[in-house]
Amino acid sequence: MVWWRRTSGIPLVPLLNLLAALGVLMYGTQRWIGYATSGATWYWSDQLIPLYAFGVGVLSAFGLAGRMRAVWPHWLVFGLRTLALLSAAPFASLISFVGGL
Fold it and tell me: Where are the domains of the chain?
């Protein structure tokens, strides 16, 4: 990470957060279009993850633009996403193991 910071000058954690948020928003947009064209019912709780991703994207854009100097929000988002990803594999393994019994 030190090498990245010295060569580019762009902070890596806000950039990673922005890329992850954009990925979630692109996936959410694809689902929104699918729901709208099929006439399916969707609920407000379906929008919580894209809303969180939008907030992370705004936070990351402010961090990359230099409008927000605090680093702890970026690391908090990064840590939460890392915990979610690390817990997803054991959870999926547990579900497939229990489903196979």
Answer: 2-99
Distance CA 84, CA 39 (A): 31
Q: Cβ(25)–Cβ(50) under 8 Å?
A: yes
Provide CB contacts within 8 A for 12, sequence distance 6+.
Answer: 1, 4, 5
Closest of 53, 7, 48, 65 to residue 26, by C-alpha: 53
| CA dihedral of 43, 48, 50, 53, whole degrees rounded to 10 | 180
pTM of the model: 0.75
Band (pLDDT 50/70/90 cuts) for residue 3 is: low
